[in-house]
Amino acid sequence: MEETPRAKYTEKEKVEVFNNEFLPHINSMYNFGHRLTLDEDDAKDLVQDTYLKAFRFIESFQKGTNAKAWLFRILKNSFINDYRKKSKEPSKVDYQEVESYYNSDDVHHQITTDLRVESLQDMIGDEISNALNSLDVDFRTVIILCDLEGFKYDEMAKILDIPIGTVRSRLHRARNLLKDKLSVYAEKMGYKNP
Amino acid sequence: MNRPNPFTGSSGKKSTCLEMLHAILDGDASEEQQEYFREHMDECMPCYKSHELDIQIKQLIKSKCCGTHVPLDLVEKIRRQMNSIT
Fold first, then answer.
1. ipTM score assigned to the predicted complex
2. CA 20 to 30 Å from A175, out of A89, A95, B47, B77?
């Protein structure tokens, strides 16, 4: 493990760091937890565990560094360690397939979709939200981090412990899957594919 | 387009349209790359169409899937537990 200089905080400073640097992200954290577990109580437990863990290890946190990315990383790891094990649901993503997809020369197939901008405008929140929630958790995660939370690729790589190239390829695949789901909704709403 | 492709990686491998689209969409492209892509869209209809759609989807996800508020009692519960640690 990387040696990190530890800050010495007084009890008062610890609470200040917690209030000023950690708590402002709690709504994002709860949204992330909820979208990972798809359950309100599990999300609450996950957020609580994450904040308590962050507080316990607060001396390894350097003021002014990216608290949000650190908190997201802790939450993601707690989710993998506690919740995935509990549900015994193995990751369904076949990374081999992702890589080969990404390296495929069939570029036009990759970016061509039946989905049209006009059909999106009529979609209500539930459809978008359901489409996102129906993606496999690894794909869902990269869309949440990138599109909802605005993390950069290098930050996502650190949060997820994967190389940037994998962040990119997973994001590409996730977005295409999401478009497929949205196309199905669009078709149900009566939009004919061109 | 005759200018060199600024998306080309150090390995010399040319970026695909998909890679360019996502770098632009996620703010991961330099100014030079953005300029190159604007010109590229004039010559590549799939990129032109996909770019607009990708932006819409990204905005839509952000507006429809954010804004959840944490249950109020949770913050209090965390604080109580914090006090028992210290």
1. 0.86
2. A89
